[in-house]
Design a protein that fits this description.
Elements lengths: L1 E5 L23 H13 L3 E6 L1 H9 L7 E5 L12 H9 L8 H8 L1 H7 L11 E4 L7 H7 L3 E5 L13 E2 L2 H11 L6 E5 L4 E10 L2 E12 L10 H5 L3 E5 L6 H18 L4 E9 L4 E8 L9 H8 L4 H19 L3
Parallel strand pairs: 1-2, 1-3
Antiparallel strand pairs: 4-7, 5-6, 5-7, 8-9, 8-11, 9-10, 11-12
Helix pairs in contact: 1-11, 2-3
């Protein structure tokens, strides 16, 4: 079988932070995909880079028949809202197997507001109070006040902490109005959410229910002393954090609670093959809050998956094998006659 890798490279897009500096946006770098292809070659797999969304559109337009192959989906799409749905949609039209979640699941996960609503009936999952802010969803001082200050206002359908900084913390309605008007110039939907004191926790998972080959918890401690910890785009780009693995920072009980919560969320949403689920944990109240889910997390030696490999004494190609094994097992199970 031929493995085609799908990705639109970060270098092909303008920076979302500052065009005068190193490019940063919600896309993998070219070197990350080259690293992935090298790992697949080490595993003895027949693989090549297919292209990105433009190449998929070209294949659809030309009714290209693709046989005895599968697609490794690592693209975040182009620059439109819900861009992560573009690849699974086009791959469905081409009727080819691909890694990761399907169109509906990716659409739901890409919308922070509706993803939280989809999980609101899960008694085991704490959801922060929030409201949707858009031209079609007007807001009022009363609505925002019901959440309780401070609040954080952020893009509703973006990833990689884009549009997020310390300035997004609001302590009054006037603060909220100013931030909303500022962000609406670049983002069509926003979410106003209660600010949660605590630490950022992410749960990286590879596999499918009930068999998860990786279900590891990573704590991110920000390298600042601000009362309001915000892991924004600038902090993410410059890696201004210290990572802790599983019980290096948290107790066994909390790590297990996070893992169990993530399995519930993954099953409820129908996540496939790989995901990263983000939380905020408050040690004083012992409460864990769901923040968002990423259906296509970065996959390289420089990101969380590389950190996990290091902690588990695995090579990067070992992580790639776990990922592809998960996909193949799911695909074979789904296509049993």
């Amino acid at each position: 079988m031929l493995y085609y890798v799908i990705c639109d490279f970060r270098e092909s897009f303008l920076s979302s932070i500052d065009s005068s500096k190193t490019s940063y946006n919600d896309h993998p770098e070219r070197k990350n995909i080259e690293e992935l292809l090298q790992a697949m070659q080490i595993l003895g797999l027949d693989c090549e880079y297919f292209g990105g969304i433009p190449e998929l559109i070209h294949a659809v337009d030309n009714k290209t028949e693709l046989k005895n192959c599968c697609f490794i989906n690592f693209t975040d799409g182009m620059i439109q809202p819900y861009s992560r749905t573009q690849a699974p949609l086009l791959l469905d039209i081409l009727d080819v197997p691909y890694t990761g979640s399907d169109v509906f699941v990716v659409s739901l996960a890409s919308n922070k507001h509706y993803c939280k609503l989809a999980l609101s009936d899960c008694d085991y999952i704490n959801i922060p109070k929030s409201i949707l802010v858009s031209d079609n969803s007007p807001f009022s001082e009363e609505e925002i006040s019901k959440i309780g200050y401070p609040i954080i206002i952020k893009p509703n359908t973006e990833g990689s902490s884009l549009g997020i900084s310390q300035k997004n913390i609001c302590h009054s309605f006037d603060d909220a109005i100013n931030i909303i008007h500022s962000l609406k110039n670049n983002y069509h939907e926003l979410i106003a959410e209660e600010y949660l004191h605590g630490i950022d926790v992410t749960n990286y998972m590879i596999g499918n229910f009930p068999n998860y080959k990786i279900n590891d918890v990573i704590v991110s401690k920000l390298q600042n002393t601000s009362k309001y910890a915000v892991y924004g785009a600038n902090e993410k780009r410059n890696r201004l954090r210290t990572l802790y693995f599983n019980t290096e920072y948290l107790s066994d009980e909390i790590v297990e609670r996070i893992r169990e919560s993530s399995i519930i969320i993954a099953k409820k949403l129908g996540l496939k093959d790989i995901c990263r689920i983000d939380y905020r944990y408050n040690a004083d109240t012992n409460k864990l809050y769901f923040i968002e889910v990423n259906t296509s997390p970065r996959f390289s030696t420089e990101t969380e998956i590389g950190f996990i490999a290091q902690k588990r004494n695995l090579y990067f190609h070992d992580m790639v094998k776990l990922y592809l094994d998960s996909f193949c097992e799911r695909f074979n199970r789904e296509h049993v006659r």
